[in-house]
Amino acid sequence: MTKNISLLGSTGSIGTQSLDVARMQGYNIKCLTANSNVAVIENQVREFKPDMVCMMQDSAAKELKAKIADTPTKVVSGMDGLIECATYDSADTVLNSVVGMVGLQPTLEAIKAKKTIALANKETLVAGGHLVTNLAKQEGVSILPVDSEHSAIFQAMQGSPRKEAVKKIILTASGGPFFGKTLAELENVKPADALKHPNWNMGAKITIDSATMMNKGLEFIEAKWLFDMPNDDIEIVVHRESVVHSAIVYRDNSVIAQLGVPDMRIPIQYALTYPERVPSPVDELSLTDYGKLTFFEPDYDTFKCINVCKDAINLGGLHPAAANGANEESVKLFLNGKIKFTDIAYLNNKAMKNAPEISDFTLQDVLDADRAARDFVLETVNC
């Protein structure tokens, strides 16, 4: 069946790979959105001919409007424009691959509009938590994971007779570029060092999150909400080869894992074709090419960001939103040379613990906690 897709965040790594899948499968792209990359999105508009495109920055929207004046594509801007694309009548599926908290509001509005959600924006569930999952249940909307780890868990669970049969989730992590390093060795690493991921080709923010292992902490929280699992039943395992994308343990202690080459187009495509399986543009996995697969326990003393996220979800309420907001600000400061790599976990932890104690929170509470955490980081660093 032909899909009509609104793709939020089309110029980033996940967005461009999503368009690879759409191109191969012949999907209709109804809306595209980006932050400010006019050159890339202009080419996308001319190839995919969407009805509407949104640029988050007003100046970029004006520039794009002039460049594609010869096309019928409507240009909108800002959060209102992003929400307009997320709720567009002619789209049946919203693939949310924007980076950061900006993805939360359009996801909620897309759920209200009863769109199927293909979710690559982990901050939506980390910060929104039960706001998102409860609304999806209320509206009868499916949230299909696009993150490779959560897609792997979702795929492995297709063999489960019922949720109660699942004993535990095993969430794999590559370990990033600094696997095996001590905290002292990470004291003076530079952004260029942290941006060298061994296996995946990703955007700058998520690559830094992989280096700090904050991404695995965020994915721990996301897994809790996606699969309704107790925190103690989610285990993080470092797997350097990024072939086993995650696994589940059944009550009889059978383990079912999803394997594949490290290519995001597999989980992207599965979210769009579920429950069907169709040919993909991805290479077939050859286990003999790898020879061996390795697994390790995370170094929680060195990669303290994992602990920040585990503590945040154990505390509940707005603490995960604060941890996420603080991290987005800390990563920006690190990339701009304003703080050390090891400062990221320290700042995230302080801001997370500073969050107000509100368990039955609203969207505005989440946005306020996010803003307060960012401000806390900036004030602590004196920026």
Description of the molecule:
- Helix 11 runs parallel beside helix 14 (305-315), helix 14 runs antiparallel to helix 15 (319-335) and helix 15 (319-335) packs antiparallel against helix 16 (343-353).
- It contains 17 helices and eleven strands.
- It has helices at 13-25, 38-48, 58-67, 78-86, 104-112, 123-128, 130-139, 148-156, 191-194, 204-212, 214-227, 265-273, 287-290, 305-315, 319-335, 343-353, 363-381; strands at 4-8, 28-34, 52-55, 74-77, 93-96, 116-119, 143-145, 166-173, 234-238, 244-250, 255-259.
- Strands 4-3-2-1-5-6-7 form a seven-stranded parallel β-sheet, sandwiched between helices.
- It has three domains: 4-145, 3-Layer(aba) Sandwich (Rossmann fold); 148-180 and 201-298, no CATH class; 304-383, Rna Polymerase Sigma Factor, Chain: A, CATH 1.10.1740.
- By secondary structure, it is an alpha/beta fold.
- The mean pLDDT is 95.
